[in-house]
Request: fold
Amino acid sequence: MTKRSLQASEEGIKKAKRVFNRKRLTQESLANQVGIDSRQPIWKFFTGKPIDRRIFHDICCFLELNPEDIVQIENCELQEEIVYPKKIKNESYADIDSLVNNIRIAHSDKIKHQCSTLRLLDVARIVKLDELYVEVNFLEELTSQRWLNLADLPAFSSNLFSESNHKKITGLQAIEKFSKLVILGKPGAGKTTFLQSVAILCNYGKFEKQRVPVFISLQDLAEKIQLDDDNILLNYLVQEFGVYQINPQEVEHLLYEGKMLILLDGLDEVSEKHSDQFNKIISKFSAIFYKNIIIITSRIASHNYKFKGFTELEIANFSKSQISEFANRWFTVFAKSTLHKDKKLASKFLEKLTLPENRLIQEIASTPLLLNLTCLVFQHLGDFPHKRAEIYRQGLELLLVRWDEARGIKRDEIYRNLTVAQKLKLLTSIAEISFARGEYFFEENKICQLIADYLRLLPHAPTDIEDLWLDSKTVLKAIELQHGLLVEQARGIYSFSHLTFHEYFTARKFVTSDNSKTLENIVNYLPDKRWREVILLTIEMLVDADLCTGQK
Reply:
């Protein structure tokens, strides 16, 4: 029976020490690289004492040594296949380019199947990626990482959340500049679609043609593979390419030579109970196979991790030119008339969108998810709704409920226990109180206090103040992560993602209030310019409510 522990031979220790010294490692740094908390197994390894078989293999792999070459044979039996196969000497593959080409050809159909089509809500037909995709830009500085005071943020204006002053870079430029990337973005910002576009370009030899593209949904990976396997990513790749008769040694050889473009989608979609382990798995994999390009996507609020050597970038909102390109593509794909009429409808959409009265619709159309909704509504009506509150309502429904449901995501949060009605009431309360105070940006402790005040009124709310405060912070992060309706605009400073939603929820407070004086109070705000949109939205929603109840 194979022993569970291995120890290095005297000669093996000498080989390992030479690599250890060449890489200028410390025992602590090596322990960190192989994903263990203590340096004691490292000390044991270099003193020839038995250590856990898995850790022994992991140390060898990081040091690029073959375990069979350094193990003390008389003390163990190497009958068990190692998790990370031994590194194949380069002489075995005289032509690495031929190996890459063979695997690219074998894997090409799988990439096309995974990445060549888009998933759009409320659209029955299949949409090809190249029919609709618009190249995204990235912000090189994360908005949530800026050190700003409230006084540094703009006062009320129609352009509170402009990114015009932020330095931007295209997606492909980012990959050429940084080989290890974490791409962050709000819900529906286009993270998955960006990875799909990169995979397809690589697959067709238009980008990084010397590498093999691999697209992996981390949510699917977590569901399919047992998480007691610390080498999930490698074993997945071995299994993936084994279908094409590519042996494990060839797969590992490609990885060591840095010939893969590995796209890991949706780290935020991995369930909370598995997230820490997945973070360690990715860190370990990227440390061992550091020559490859590795790109991870996640929602902004979920980046409570740091991967060594990775650069974090944030997807920017669509610019006016990107909105125009998307709209032209959208109406060409979906309009049911001639191409000439399609272009005419796209022109009408863009003309209407730029009108002053539709400024707030243009604001929410700055992400692909909500822009798709906006185009869809316009196609059905031939115009924007006279009552703009309707398109805002549909957008909120999309963000609050349908987007995660469509992607099969169930998040492990306290927030999940709140009903949709309770979530709406909470957001309405936050919006009305802050808007009345003239606050468009609010410090974390203030917004947590507003959330705590609401949670305190619910059944089964924590009675302990500390527990209630912790729950309020959890809810804040959940709203940001799941819906992107509240976002961190700078360190510890939040706002609604769009002024439009802030105003909509404020109006909703007046409409849904049982207190008649609350509605009467809106008259007091008539002279104030910043309340104009709130008052108009309130009137629209009141008319709808009267029609529903049969009032005149």
